[in-house]
Amino acid sequence: MIKKVVIVGAGPSGLLLAHYLLRRGDRYQIDIYERRSDPQTISFSKSRTYPISLNERGMSALRQIEGLEEPIKAVSVEMTGTVFHQTNGKTRFTPRKKPLVTLDRTNLVIVLLKQLSQKYDNNRLQIHFDCPCTTVDFVAKNVTFQSVLAESSIEIPTKKEFTIDYDLLVGADGSRSVVREGFFSTKLFECEAKYYPTDYKSIFLDNANNSNIHLKSDNIHTWRLDDGTLMVALNQVDGTMSGAINFPREKNQVAGLSSAKEVLKFFQDHFPVIGQVMTEEEAEAFLNRPISRILTIRCNRYHQSDSVLLMGDAAHAVSSSIGQGCNAALEDVVVFDNLLNEYNDDLADALEQFTVRRQPDGYALVELGDYAFPSSTKLFVEFILREFLAKTLHRLFPKFFPPSLIDLIFETTVPYSEILNSYKGWVSKVKKSSILAAEQE
């Protein structure tokens, strides 16, 4: 019997899940609903897109679908290391054994969409844009959406509600998941949602190629101020640069900027390399770009009965500090696919085991995102020394000393729960320091 699967959210994990399910033959019919417009036809605002880094965890998930790796790499840049720009003008380079694949999130979504439409016809796959999810009914096994329609004669959008039945409902609709909200009507569901103490604004440097300042295109470039403000920039495949400035919410130097001239002066004073390539147009755009907050999510389970599943940020949204949000979301798909193989597509068993096997990693992922990297300058110096020592000892005595924390996160597929267990002492130290700092403010 063919199972009707409704996926809410056409982000990387929702689209990759469609790839995995459809390659299992005629067992599944897929309907994907996305609240935003089709990125293949609509030019997205730059405030809604951002660069992502895919390590082996994410790339191995994508690589298992034939034909995906090549077009993804065609819109990506491989990063062989990170350059830390110090305030005195000097730099420190940290190489990577395995390059990171960096690209714009929207471009990744477009590749996944194109590959789906090329491989599967409308009989097995339907993708619906401009359809926000409004309510879910786990008992009746149906979900309600709004279809945003444009009346061409008067050009006024109208909204029409409709309800769809499902055999399996997948909430891949992000940290503010509507599907996850439905879990609160079920027994014993617990979910902790909190804002990460650091906010960010995106930055786009279209003229970086024409600058006299040369920043190596195969490196991630970072700058850090004493108050914890962090600037990250990387090259895109078209020669431009993009990134984000991350700043502690309580020490937000960006909020006080009131003109493009003040924005330019801020970057020229604190991040002179960026200040020299930023144009007045980008300074004005940066000023008007909204400040983005990061919501982290920890849930005690990712499934409901035999018919509802949470994936990606809907299940375990994490801060961007460790660059694992998309990687973990893509890995979710692999875990679920392996469970379908193990239990011969029995959804009841596969969904239950998804929570059993994935929830510890989801919890550890958020903990690592919150406390792997310290915000205090004193602990940051200690962190650098710890990393150097760990890398050295592992290189000399690999059987006795594990890889460094950064190497485990970025260059392996070791489960997040194992990484947290290996470095629980350090994470606990950073956590205590962060709590103490918050209490003193």
From TrEMBL:
It comes from the Bacteria. Gene3D superfamilies: FAD/NAD(P)-binding domain. Residues 4-344 form the FAD-binding domain. It holds the Pfam family FAD_binding_3. This is VioC monooxygenase. The keyword Coiled coil does not apply. GO terms for biological process: kynurenine metabolic process. The keyword Glycoprotein does not apply. Keywords: FAD, Flavoprotein, Monooxygenase, NADP, Oxidoreductase. SUPFAM superfamilies: FAD/NAD(P)-binding domain. InterPro entries: FAD-bd, FAD/NAD-bd_sf. It comes from Nostoc minutum NIES-26. Its cofactor is FAD.
